[in-house]
Structure formats: structure tokens, C-alpha cells
Amino acid sequence: MIGLFDSGLGGLSVWREVAKELPSQSTLYVGDQSHVPYGPKPAETLVRYSEGITRFLHEQQCRAIVVACNSASAAALEPLRRTFPDTVFVGMEPAVKPAAARTKSGVVLVLATPATLKGELFAATTARFAQGVTVIGEPCPGLVEEIESGGGASEKAEAMLRAFLARGLAAGADEIVLACTHYPFVIETVRRLAGPGVEVIDPAPAVARQLRRLLREREAGGAAPTHRFLTTAKDARAFAHAVRDLTGTDPVTGCLEWTALGGLTEVSVETS
């Protein structure tokens, strides 16, 4: 089984690609909606949340885990690999490398959360792959919350995106990197506002391909795969509706709650 986790619904953009690339694999998705958004939180807090979720996924027999959140990947991916050395981890990396290779104007705009832009992973990726390219990191406060609430197609979301794009487009950016897993759910609005001649990069397909490469030798067929989606919110019903709308699946959902020791326990299950 493959485990995936995010602060909320954003990692479902990665889940879609994983399910497409590895159709025989069962999955277990955890959306930590009681703590959404992750972006403004300190790195040590994100490490604590990520370790708690990973321990739960281990208990559920997940043999590979996708950290389907840019903020959590920036803060916790390396600590997770040290703490759980026998687990296959795949995280999110800002797609600066392909953007820098493809840009003709020499300007790349990265839409991200503050945690991603402040993280060592973003700095290292930019330093390694974007020599001679101007990389503009644009924090997008409030956008995750708007998407979580179902407002990705709203006029408010469009106005926010217009403001977040303004600086980079004015500087001549012809490559836009979506460095938060929530943002692919507004990718069509970003493309429309950016206009022709600007490429918008969603890294989720590349993450799914990397996971397939890592698991190729161990991929098994047999029984039909199962997919469960769990939330740390108190009510799974709204979560179930969002999962159905965003993935096209008929989900089995449930609720988790955080224990006093920082672990997770399942408290309800709902078949939608």
C-alpha cells in the first residue's frame, strides 16, 4: 500500500497522478485538515506533524509514503528519511529545474507557501539549477484556505491569483511553477490569467513517475486496489464530497484525531 499525506485537500492532485501511474496499488491518503494550512507554520511543527502521520501510515502497512505537500517536504522530508530509514519516501520539490531549462525570457515565477520559499530545499534547488535565471518566489497567503473551502473557481480566488501573478508577469516570466499541491486545482485560471506563451508547471506527474520507478521491482498485481481517504477534521462528510469532486472517485473516508502524544488514531469510518 502507498501512503500519501498533506495538510488537507491539495495532495489529492498528487494522488490522481499516483493512481494513474500505479493502477494496481492500494492507497491510503491522510489530509491533516485540523492543522491546515501548513505553509505559515514553523519547520519544527511540520516535522512533528509529519512524523505523527508517518507513524500512523506505518501502522497501516504502507511500504512507500508520498509527502504530498511542498511545505512538509521542505521541512520534514530529510528528517523523515533519517527517522524511518527503511521506508521509501517521495516528496515534492519545486519544479525550478525544468522551468529554468525551458525559459526563453530568463525569468521564472514560483507560486508557493512561505514555508516552501524559506526552506533549504527551495534555496538548494534554485542555486543548483537556476544559474543565470531570475527566480521570483511569490508567497500566496490565503489561497490554500480558499481552495480548501471549495472556492477555487470563485471570483475571490481569481482576484487573489491576479495579484500573485502580477509581479512575475511584469518582470517577463514565461514559466510559472506551482510549488504547492493545492495550486493545480486552479491551474486553468492561472493559465488564462498568464496568457499565451507562458507555461504553467504542475510537478505532480513527475512525482508519480518517480514513485513508479522506485517501486517498479516490487509492484504487485492480484486483488483489486482499495483507496481510503482520512481527515483529521471532525466530520468526514464535507471531506468525502471534496474528494469525490476533485478525484472523481466514490471514496471510503473516515476521521482521525491527534492523541496527546502526537500520534493519530482512527475514530470513525464512513463509506460515501
Characteristic terms for this protein:
2 domains; 272 residues; Rossmann fold; seven-stranded mixed sheet; alpha/beta; 11 strands; globular; four-stranded parallel sheet
Overview of the molecule:
With 272 residues, the protein is of the alpha/beta class. The chain has two domains: 2-92 and 206-271, Rossmann fold; 96-202, Rossmann fold (3-Layer(aba) Sandwich). It contains eleven helices and eleven strands. Strands 4-3-1-2-9-10-11 form a seven-stranded mixed β-sheet, with helices on both faces. The protein has a four-stranded parallel β-sheet with strand order 6-5-7-8, sandwiched between helices. Strand 7, helix 9 and strand 8 (199-201) form a beta-alpha-beta unit. The longest helix is centred in the first third of the chain and has 17 residues, at 43-59. The radius of gyration is 18 Å and the shape is globular. The mean pLDDT is 93.
Annotate the secondary structure layout:
Elements: E1 2-6, H1 12-21, E2 27-31, H2 43-59, E3 64-67, H3 70-83, E4 88-91, H4 96-102, E5 107-112, H5 114-118, H6 120-129, E6 134-139, H7 143-148, H8 155-170, E7 175-179, H9 187-194, E8 199-201, H10 204-215, E9 227-231, H11 236-247, E10 252-258, E11 264-271
Parallel strand pairs: 1-2, 1-3, 2-9, 3-4, 5-6, 5-7, 7-8, 9-10
Antiparallel strand pairs: 10-11
Helix pairs in contact: 1-10, 2-3, 4-6, 8-9
